[in-house]
Amino acid sequence: MSCCDLAAAGQLGKTGIMASDCEPALNQAEGRNPTLERYLGALREAKNDSEQFAALLLVTKAVKAGDIDAKTRRRIFDAVGFTFPNRLLTTKEAPDGCPDHVLRALGVALLACFCSDPELAAHTQVLNKIPILSTFLTARGDPDDAARRSMIDDTYQCLTAVAGTPRGPRHLIAGGTVSALCQAYLGHGYGFDQALALLVGLLAAAETQCWKEAEPDLLAVLRGLSEDFQKAEDASKFELCQLLPLFLPPTTVPSECLRDLQAGLARILGSKLSSWQRNPALKLAARLAHACGSDWIPAGSSGSKFLALLVNLACVEVRLALEESGTEVKEDVVTACYALMELGIQECTRCEQSLLKEPQKVQLVSIMKEAIGAVIHYLLQVATLAISPTTPGSTWPGDALRLLLPGWCHLTVEDGPREILIKEGAPSLLCKYFLQQWELTSPGHDTSVLPDSVEIGLQTCCHIFLNLVVTAPGLIKRDACFTSLMNTLMTSLPALVQQQGRLLLAANVATLGLLMARLLSTSPALQGTPASRGFFAAAILFLSQSHVARATPGSDQAVLALSPDYEGIWADLQELWFLGMQAFTGCVPLLPWLAPAALRSRWPQELLQLLGSVSPNSVKPEMVAAYQGVLVELARANRLCREAMRLQAGEETASHYRMAALEQCLSEP
After folding, report:
1. Which of 75, 76, 81, 169 is nearest to 127 (CA)?
2. Can you list the pairs that 517-524 forms with residues at least 24 positions away whose Cβ atoms lie under 8 Å?
């Protein structure tokens, strides 16, 4: 028995409860455990801190002695609450002979018990412990101390439970957990493998936020993993293949990491492997190709041989997947192989500083032709699956067209490929595909079972349509399929902007619809019909809710800031938002009913009110230009709009922001 146990037993001796009573496991699924009842009774009757601590010690020991059911856990929480764990985590006055970290270990053990309940794991009293829990992961101490090891295990249990709640990852990132996990892993102390597992989960849930908060620490982990990968001689190298893509940064990958990763991949892919060993390596190579092109492959003979091997393996994998009947097709692997084939095409067409010599290019072109032929043959075979309803959650052969969308997105930007796609009827097919996929997300369908790929595919379709709107406006006006598409966008956006977690898709739909409305402004469907009014009201909602006034400490004037819903995805959203503002501005003079509708929504008044409530220095020039464009067109289009803006101090606001065009417009009768 430890010194702390002896101290506790001495205190409990006065109440008739002995420390030896803590041995039975608290694992009864039904009824009440007599031992627990005695412990909780002692806790309720404790007259001082020492007696409370002693009783709590035994309750905690009972909790740790075995599994407990949800009802028992709740009874413990009702008796103990968060008060005792809070005191244990922060107190510096331990009973004689009991180290401070033992008290903290008790507090964490109770929190770990409570966190088994998802509702309690999301409680503010748990969330506000994240910073102190994170410090426990890197605290120094005797690595062989049993209490310290137990506390570390319980800490990981708490943090993992929080990570499993809806907003848990965001709280963990804000609480410094990512940096603490990185340091715990790099220290290779007790529990470092748990640190890596939790890091993987956080990166998968909120990659951008993780890198924003802890980039130096995550890069240090990447360096360590890359070095381990390069040196690994056992099966761990295949496990690292699966982990490493998650740790590649959104910015530049350090050169020393690229060297280690390429060397490790060369050793793996140069060996005879089974598919479960080879596929993670191909996916890692594809991620590197996406992030760095061919810059991660060294020049010279070794680099050219490696690239040729990589592309060759990718082509073989594609042919096996598409030509062999009965072969299990893994979508992520095939997609990775397409990325590697694209890398091969880029190097084969590069005239200067190519990694490949001419004979290698000729050989690879021949191999890639065969793989591309397999793709075309497959698509011809399944061409009638391409626009048929897809069963939610089905594998990719029922949705072959989706794999072509990223390529089409690139091709529609270039004049030659775009003309070929238009000539072959690709836009019409894409419209039908979009409408079919959109049907899967409509009311009456259970969207919770849909794979993420459906929504990603819809966003990519929108990008392709945006390219066509900008580069081939005549096509939008003359092809009837775009009228059907416009009708779907108009009827769908009002519900879409209200749905949580679908803001990026709503941005794509709103922006595409606004740009198409400018081209189809003479269509009867856009002449103030209920559908058109609903669409523009929803578009205004999307455009108007992006920014808010936010108070700043020590200042009397607020600043313009992103709304919480927009802040986390603004990097992906901002281009669509600015394009949407520009498109809305262009629609105002073309649709006479739009300015009065915007006035009834109070957008111009609220926009001027927002600008008047924040510091002009906090509003970037591009924001000022976007806001002025909308306000000027609304003011020019409608007398009542001008009067409403004047009543909202529009001329004064225009002067403060140097909006000369708006100021002049509002000065006119």
Report:
1. 169
2. 517/486, 517/583, 517/587, 517/591, 518/583, 518/586, 518/587, 518/590, 519/469, 519/473, 519/476, 519/477, 520/476, 520/477, 520/482, 520/483, 520/486, 521/587, 521/590, 521/591, 523/483, 523/486
Name the DSSP letter for residue 614. Answer: B
- Which residue blocks in 232-300 are alpha helix, DSSP H? 236-243, 255-269, 275-292
How far apart CA 112 and CA 34 sit, in angstroms, is 23
In this prediction, residue 625 has a pLDDT band, given cuts at 50, 70 and 90, of: very high
**What are phi and psi for residue 18, nearest 5 degrees?**
-100, 150
Asked if the model's pLDDT at residue 66 lies above 60, the reply is no
Q: Provide the CB-side half-sphere exposure for 246 (13 A, CA).
A: 20
The mean pLDDT value for 351-356 works out to 84
The pLDDT, as a whole number, for residue 668 is: 81
- pLDDT band per the 50, 70, 90 thresholds, residue 247: very high
**Could you tell me the CA-to-CA distances from 12 to 53, 75, 99, 101, 110 in Å, in that order?**
9, 22, 19, 21, 20
pLDDT score, position 32: 58
Asked whether 437 and 390 are in contact (CB, 8 A), the reply is yes
pLDDT digits (tens, 9 = 90+) for 426-470: 999 999 999 988 888 776 666 656 667 788 889 999 999 999 999
* Per-residue 3-state assignment (H helix, E strand, C coil) for 42-110: HHHHCCCHHHHHHHHHHHHHHHHHCCCCHHHHHHHHHHHCCHHHHHHHHCCCCCCCCCHHHHHHHHHHH
Measure Cα distances from 316 to 100, 222, 242, 282 in Å.
61, 30, 21, 12
Task: Tell me which residue of 186, 180, 127 sits closest to 158, measured CA to CA.
Answer: 127
CB neighbourhood size of 308 (10 A): 20
Give yes or no for a contact between 312 and 270, defined as CB atoms under 8 angstroms apart.
Answer: no
Residue pair 615/559 in contact by the 8 Å Cβ criterion: yes
Name the pLDDT band for 70 (thresholds 50, 70, 90): confident
Closest Cα partner for 43 from 78, 91, 4, 2?
78
Burial track 407-435 (b if 16+ CB lie within 10 A, e otherwise): ebbebbeeeeebeebbeeebbebbbbbbb
**Distance of CA 99 to CAs 56, 84, 103, 107, 292, Å?**
16, 17, 7, 14, 52
Rounded Cα–Cα distance for residues 30 and 533 (Å): 60
The residue type found at 77 is: F
Distances in whole angstroms, Cα of residue 422 to Cα of each of 257, 376, 381, 431, 488:
43, 18, 22, 12, 22
Question: What is the rounded CA–CA span in Å between residue 669 and residue 663?
Answer: 12
Give the range among 272-276, 497-501, 533-537 with minimum mean pLDDT: 272-276
pLDDT of residue 9: 39
Q: What is the pLDDT of residues 139-192, one digit of tens each?
A: 887 777 888 888 999 999 999 999 999 889 999 999 999 999 999 999 999 999
Name the token pair of 373: 């032929």
Yes or no: say if 398 and 390 are a contact pair by the CB < 8 Å rule. Answer: yes
CA–CA separation, 661 and 502 (whole Å): 36
What is the rounded average pLDDT of the residues 31-48? Answer: 69
Q: Assess contact for 183 and 225: CB atoms under 8 A.
A: no
Residue 69 reports pLDDT greater than 90: no
Q: Using 50, 70 and 90 to split pLDDT, how confident is the model at 28?
A: very low
Residue with tokens 């238009």: 422
Tell me the C-alpha to C-alpha distance, in Å, between residue 23 and each of 60, 65, 147, 149, 467. Answer: 11, 7, 17, 20, 70
Give the pairing type, strands 547-550 and 559-562: antiparallel
